[in-house]
Model the fold of this input.
Amino acid sequence: MRTLRFLLQKEFRQIFRDPSIIRIIFMMPSIQLLILPWAADYEVKNIHLSVVDHDHSQYARQMVNKITSSGYFILQDYSGSYNNAMEQIEHDKADLVLEIPAGFEKKLIKENESTLFMAINAINGVKANLGGAYLRSIIQDYNREVRMKWIQLPRFSPELQIEVTASNWFNPLMNYKIFMVPGILVVLVTMVGAFLASLNIVREKEIGTIEQINVTPVKKYHFILGKLIPFWILGLLILSIGLTIARVAYGIIPAGSLLVIYTFAAVYLLAVLGLGLLLSTYTSNQQQAMLLSFFMMMVFILLSGLYTSIDSMPGWAQVVTKFNPVTYFIEVMRMVVLKGSGLKDISTHLFTVLGFAVALNTWAVINYKKRS
Amino acid sequence: MTTNNTAIYAEALTKRFGDFTAVDAISFDVKKGEIFGFLGANGAGKTTAMRMLCGLSIPTSGKATVAGFDVFKQTEQIKRSIGYMSQKFSLYEDLTVRENIRFYAGIYGKSDAFIKEKTAFLLKELHLEAEANKLVRSLPLGWKQKLAFSVAIFHEPEIVFLDEPTGGVDPVTRREFWNMIYKAAESGITIFVTTHYMDEAEYCNRVSIMVDGRIDALDTPAQLKKTFDVKSMDEVFLKLARKAKRSGD
Done:
């Protein structure tokens, strides 16, 4: 116990004496949480639209008006030539081309139906998909308006139509910030837990102090605990700072209990610290550790369901996400913050992550050699 | 043979890394209170041998005891009985002089009272009282090395292993450093030291010279010079080291 006390005292002194660590602890969560949620938004706005109007009718103009007043589209170009509009797409000035054929109005009135043509620039897949969908729904809306105008009585359409109304549970306004902030916070906690810890240990290897420790009677578990405990505390500190920022800046107050979040975080940190420890046993200098961390972080983030839904990933990728601890914490955070889930609801997650913690730490301890 | 007077005893101690035999069946013994010089060219296997004796590396075969403890089975007891100063400077640069002393003494299980009293004494002896609360980073190299040595023997070990302790240090400081080594030896600490400076070899009671993983010569500096019929340790070393087939670290 006494040995551990000395190790911890030394570790905390070093951590709090290092200005870059202080910056990481306080600046990183502030900056990431204050900036990223505004940018990491799935809603697509500012879609550049190029309209090719061969009709020049009142209906066509009304429709274009309706589209541009929706707020999602910027009318980039309004011309009479499809080639001209395609050129806009080729120069990346337009994302969507809407072609209104000649006789659009006439056909609509006479034959009760008319066709439009849409060309989508699919280089940016998300924008193309959503942009096309928005445009379709606006045109459908317009279609309904036109029909309402014509069919005065009876006031319903003779054709049967199913209209879907939806209400968004747990996040009624579909506020992406509420969705993103807990996720970003998880990434932060992971970075501190896994990567600061591994860098710290590798640094001792690099400067040779670990060798000095190895010739002392300090036991393997003393040394490892001496490294894990400070970063475990730092991880929880970052979480607290993050939750405070979420509350103050975004008004995000977890619907569930903070105790559930902290309980899960405590176990989760054990798992990522085990990962950090493991990384440090496989690397011999800080550069290697950095590169490896960077690579792992990319995989962790992209396969965690933070930005893209896991359900839409191919089967093998979904399997990979099962082995990604970040996935579980992000799910838990969203469940607790948005839905107010309790300990019972997240128990599967908790035990899975506990399993990770045991496995990773065992592996790391076995691999950490005091003698070679 | 181990007697009560033996600090280190090695018999056919060997370390292989795959096909490569880093240390090839070395045998020697070091008496208590002796200053034992462990010489050899770069890559001769000095550091590997030392790491085995310190319990950092498991020998492939052979026998060895350090402070009466077996290097295979009793490494934890060995670690309690020795001090070690590595080639790389190994104090924490981002801790102060006082914090470093306290930390290393603490992990050797020394009491607060012991640490407090001895720290004051040590700081005075090293003339570091004014620097006690400065970061070690800010000290000149020579001072750092002297401090590192003092920290290595702070917990009063039976044996201290010094791996090229004076590398890169100026001659004046080196002389001071050796005075500290003599003082430690007088107080009963056995000194096991590697060096590349042949004038330092002359300061040792006995010297062994390693060539390609084997000990090719072991005697007092005076006797070695006589055996090889030369005037200085420098020449003894050159005569032996030239035979080496291995080179580099």
